[in-house]
Amino acid sequence: MAMKKTALIIDTDLVDQVRQLLGTKTTTETINEALREIIRMHGRAAGLERLRRRQGLDLDPETMRGAWRHKRDDTGGDDGAVPRRQERIGEVAPR
After folding, report:
1. Entry pTM
2. Does residue 87 lie in a domain region?
């Protein structure tokens, strides 16, 4: 890791806010962690964009048809099988 000492004119209130958010102790640690977080955010955004465009995913119709064809136990018993019925968010499960 290359390091360089430099002088900056920086908004100390902004640094303090970021320090609290990141849980860092020093200004140097805060700035370095903030820069790392920007890099991570960019990577996550690029990954989400690839998913949105389905780049690199084998999602042809035949593959997707077979993805949910596994027969499973409806009881959810002790055999470890997952019930076939998939609950939707906010849906009340039957009793």
Report:
1. 0.56
2. no
